[in-house]
Amino acid sequence: METFGSTAPRLMTVPQAVAYSQESRATLYKEWKAGNLKFVKMGGSTRIEFDELNRYIDAKISQAA
Questions:
Q1: Does residue 1 lie within any of the structural domains?
Q2: What is the domain extent for residue 23?
Q3: Per-residue pLDDT reduced to its tens digit, 19-54
C-alpha cells in the first residue's frame, strides 16, 4: 500500500482495504452490512478509514484467541 512519508493514508479504497486486510471484497461488504465495519461515501466513491479497518482486524484477532 502506498504511504505518504511515515504515515499511512487516512482513507483507503476498497481494493486497498482488500489487499491490506487479506479479506475478500465480498467479506468486507458482508461485514459492512452486518454493522461490523464502517464505510465512508465520498461522492461516488466508497472508502474505509485506516483506523476503522485496523479496529476490525484487531476484533477478528481477539475473537480467534
A1: no
A2: 11-64
A3: 999 999 999 999 999 999 999 999 999 999 999 999
